[in-house]
From TrEMBL:
Residues 576-586 have a biased composition (Low complexity). This is Uncharacterized protein. Keywords: Signal. Residues 587-597 have a biased composition (Polar residues). PANTHER family: EXPRESSED PROTEIN-RELATED, POLYMORPHIC MEMBRANE PROTEIN REPEAT-CONTAINING PROTEIN-RELATED. Residues 1-21 form the signal peptide. Residues 493-539, 576-602 are annotated as: Disordered.
Length: 624
């Protein structure tokens, strides 16, 4: 559905509420001089408020004294950073509040360079705090009888050193809520955040293992760019961990956040704990996350990761899921992944005492189904991390379609103490696609019977793992006893034997060529380690020539003795030439003759030739 249509529908809904209720408009204009006292500004014929703090105090006054709702705060100018830009704590406002620029096509910019407080705070006072005057931005109020609703739209935030929106109350722990003061809806539409570090900080004042997800509902449609990790803001209840851009505990969250050109290298981008999560469409490009997960979920119920385009990012872990709270909940991401790189060095290996792992996806202590997965790897990259790491979990892993997500990863699946069911996953790219220990692996029959994508090595490198084949409801155990010899050939016991070296087999090739009745004979002997013998005879000339050639793996030595039969006796000449050649070692039998051995085999022939030459010289000398 078109986003503009949804937003228009939302405005119609808001206007209907405005008509049926006591509506109050409060205007804020930083470009004019202050012409009022206290917070008597912004409403009807009063001068516009010249600060957001005054506008926040006027909203509290209208809510407490007049039960006004809805309350619209219109921002009519840019806020350039020379003055604070905080509405203060609006916990006392029991109303539907909307904060916006009136012109959606030309939103105003709020610069937080000179602001040391969040743009908007909803913080419940401690019990010991007494009720302040109604003009105080930190005053408390009687229990709200209606649900608080806060809508922020058509604004740009830049240069914020503090978080933008902070909600810190005693959250609902009952499955059936009874206290409306603990119920808040926060919706952020058409909002841009740049050169800042913290967008949402939502966490409970009360400690509990369970929070009612629906008590605090968040819908965020935000474009964030040039974000950085905060060097100063600390995560709640921590003395050394920094605050990530989105830190949310105990809420129902649906996001549609676009992130680009940012460096979030000190924290995760999302830290989500004890939440219900449904991801929307996101475009994440040109960012550095380093060794920190892009999304970090702790004890949360994930309904869907969402549809994501993930381009040109440096990241170790895309998503980290710790103690998933719902059994077999479908997680259906559609992801286009391209030009992903991994950091060459990690300066930290955990966040809030949660250990990091070298994997693109991490799943620890949970039960879940990853279904209808579609990963489109648009470009190849090489990485030393695993694609999916799981520990102490029960997982179903299904691909609806895939251009293999496993290209470039060290391993496709690494599992420790898990039950893993794999369906429609092509693991043929990897020699050992499943590694780990003490796990049960269920492979679908189609994969096992498809010789193009299945290899026996699939069963290697997962120690003490059991494998099963399943087709519909039929499951049978796979006998993998053969894998020990297949996967560890060096460890396979073999009988002890003693090998006696044997000489290489030599081949003699003799060719005789005859061309006329005077018959010239040529004999060639070649010593090579093969087992082929051939003899060829033909007629050529009246000259007799004998050639012996010795071939080794590194050099060829040729010795030629030529005698010319004429009426005059001449001394035969002997020529020896050696030239280097490059060949591959050829071996037969269990012993290969070395070059030195083969060259020494030619020495008797050389000595006989020398003796013959000396004998002829002596005979000639005697008869002279």
């Amino acid at each position: 559905m078109n986003k503009n249509f949804l937003f228009t529908l939302f405005l119609v809904f808001v206007n209907v509420i405005f008509v049926a209720s006591q509506r109050v408009n409060i205007s804020v204009d930083y470009s004019i001089n202050k012409g009022y006292s206290n917070s008597q500004c912004g409403v009807d014929t009063e001068p516009a408020c010249t600060s957001l703090e005054d506008a926040g105090n006027r909203a509290i006054l209208e809510s407490v004294e007049n039960n006004a709702t809805p309350i619209l705060i219109y921002i009519l100018s840019n806020i350039n950073g020379s003055a604070p830009a905080s509405l203060g704590n609006l916990y006392s406002v029991c109303a539907f509040i909307q904060i916006l620029s009136p012109n959606a096509s030309n939103p105003f910019t709020i610069d937080g360079s000179n602001t040391d407080q969040p743009f908007l705070t909803i913080e419940e006072p401690s019990e010991q705090q007494t009720t302040s005057s109604t003009s105080s931005s930190s005053s408390s109020s009687p229990t709200c009888l209606i649900q608080r609703k806060i809508y922020i739209s058509n604004l740009k935030f830049t240069n914020w050193k503090q978080t933008l929106i902070k909600i810190h109350i005693n959250q609902e722990t009952k499955e059936t809520p009874t206290d409306q003061s603990k119920s808040i809806i926060l919706q952020v539409f058409r909002t841009e955040v740049s050169y800042s570090s913290s967008i949402l900080l939502i966490y409970p004042k009360n400690q509990n293992e369970y929070y009612n997800y629906n008590s605090i509902a968040i819908l965020a449609m935000i474009t964030a760019k040039y974000m950085t990790s905060s060097p100063n803001l600390l995560a709640p209840n921590s003395i050394d961990e920094l605050l990530p851009p989105l830190y949310i505990v105990g809420a129902a969250v649906q996001d549609q956040i676009y992130l680009e050109n940012s460096n979030i290298s000190l924290t995760p981008f999302f830290y989500i704990e004890k939440c219900l999560w449904k991801g929307g469409i996101r475009n994440i490009s040109n960012n550095i996350f380093s060794c920190n997960p892009y999304m970090f979920f702790v004890k949360s119920h994930m309904f869907s990761i969402g549809m994501i385009s993930f381009f040109n990012n440096e990241v170790m872990t895309y998503i980290y899921i710790l103690e998933q709270q719902a059994d077999f909940v479908a997680i259906t991401p559609v992801a286009d992944l391209a030009n992903i790189s991994t950091p060459t060095y990690c300066h930290k290996n955990k966040y809030l005492n949660h250990q990091y792992y070298n994997s693109f996806t991490v799943f620890i202590r949970g039960n879940s189904t990853f279904s209808d997965l579609y990963f489109n790897m648009l470009s190849y990259y090489k990485s030393n991390i695993d694609f999916f790491y799981a520990q102490d979990s029960n997982i179903n892993f299904e691909f609806a379609a895939t251009y293999p997500p496993n290209r470039g990863y060290a391993n496709l699946f690494k599992i420790i103490n898990c039950t893993l069911r794999i369906y429609n996953v092509d693991m043929s790219v990897y020699q050992f696609p499943i590694v780990g220990s003490n796990s049960s692996v269920y492979l679908d029959s189609y994969y096992l019977n498809n010789t193009l994508i299945f290899k026996n090595e699939t069963f290697c490198n997962c120690s003490d793992c059991l494998y099963y084949e399943y087709l519909n409801s039929n499951i049978k155990r796979i006998d993998t006893s053969f894998r020990y010899s297949l996967c560890n050939p060096k460890l396979t016991p073999t009988p002890s034997t003693t090998t006696t070296p044997t000489p290489s087999t030599t081949t003699t090739s003799t060719s005789t060529t005859i061309t006329d009745p005077t018959a010239t004979t040529t004999t060639t002997t070649t010593l090579i380690p093969t087992s082929t013998t051939s003899t060829t005879t033909s007629t050529t000339s009246t000259t007799t020539t004998t050639t012996t050639t010795i071939i080794t793996t590194t050099a060829a030595t040729t010795m030629t003795a030529t005698t010319a039969a004429t009426t005059t006796t001449s001394i035969p000449t002997t020529s020896i030439t050696t030239s280097d050649i490059t060949t591959s070692p050829i071996q037969t039998g269990s012993h290969s003759t070395s070059s030195a051995e083969k060259i020494s085999m030619a020495e008797p022939t050389s000595k006989r030739t020398s003796i013959m030459v000396l004998f002829i010289v002596v005979i000639v000398f005697i008869f002279m």
